[in-house]
Amino acid sequence: MNKIIIISMFVSLITGIFGNSGTPVKSPAEDRNVEGALVQNENQITLDYKTGDLGVVWAFVDDPRKLTLHLNLEDKKTAASAKEELGCKLLVNGGFYNKEDKAIGLFVTGGKTLNNWQENNLFNGVFGITSKGEVKIGTQIDGFEIAIQTGPVLVKDGVHKELAIKNDEPERRVVVGTVTGEKLVFLSFYNPSSYYLGPNLEDLPFLLKSFEKQTGLEIQDAINLDGGTASAFYNEEISLTELRAIGSFFCASSK
After folding, report:
1. I need a surface site. Which of 85, 107, 121, 201 has the fewest CB within 10 A?
2. What is the pLDDT of residues 91-122, one digit of tens each?
């Protein structure tokens, strides 16, 4: 049975600097109540958190070479329409953008650099994939087929970072990482009672440890992506919708 929660529009007023990328962008989803629907599946657990239960869903990408990166700052497509149009087996939002609707920092797609690296204490890392399908999470800025600057880095070489974030807010969080066996994984942490809410950003490294203990998966590297109302997570079993247009997104082709 689908577990569906209808979230009132007042959620659009709840924004923090880590869950809201710049100036609010109106999307078709803002004209109606928005659903977050989860079909029970094996890649879904509940973690204990200081504010209560926290839901976690995740999805693997078997072949990183099939992952593409798309800017959405001009078209402002909904995640659902983009998934259908591009035939994505998995669609997850990308990184952050500013008030001028520009991607923050490095952005590489199709081997072409659209935006260069910028020094930033919060967005302090890069997630990228080389033309050979190698997944890199760290500070490398060259040699990518697709890449975004984002952050903060949460886990590096199996070591979980200690974070102290000013003006931290409880928001739905989206993370990309690698696990033992060089698998690429996307995860989302959310409040089951209000899908756009979730943990504080600085708690993500600790929560990834809890995730490891409960699932037996070992996170090697992980980095934070955009979250809150400007995040989306779709595959055949999971539908976490956005309330504000996502600035960019990853699409794992089903072909």
Report:
1. 121
2. 999 999 999 999 999 999 999 999 999 999 99
pLDDT in tens, 163-222: 999 999 999 999 999 998 779 999 999 999 999 999 999 999 999 999 999 999 999 999
Cβ atoms of 79 and 242 within 8 Å: the answer is yes
Q: Is residue 148 within 8 Å of 166, Cβ to Cβ?
A: no
How far is residue 127's CA from residue 136's CA, in Å, rounded to a whole number?
Answer: 6
Q: Please indicate, yes or no, whether the overall pTM of this predicted structure exceeds 0.90.
A: no
Question: For a pLDDT cut of 90, what percent of the chain falls above it?
Answer: 80
CA–CA dist 13, 162 (Å, integer)? 29
Q: Which candidate, 49, 48, 57, places its Cα nearest to that of 90? A: 57
Residues whose CB is less than 8 angstroms from the CB of residue 238 and which lie 6 or more positions away in sequence, other chains included: 38, 39, 41, 44, 57, 59, 188
pLDDT tens digit string along 129-162?
A: 999 999 999 999 999 999 999 999 999 999 999 9
Based on its alpha-carbon atoms, the radius of gyration of the chain, rounded to whole angstroms, reads: 16
Sheet holding 3-7, edge to edge: 3-7, 34-38, 238-240, 233-234, 88-93, 248-253, 67-71
CB 148 within 8 A of CB 71: no
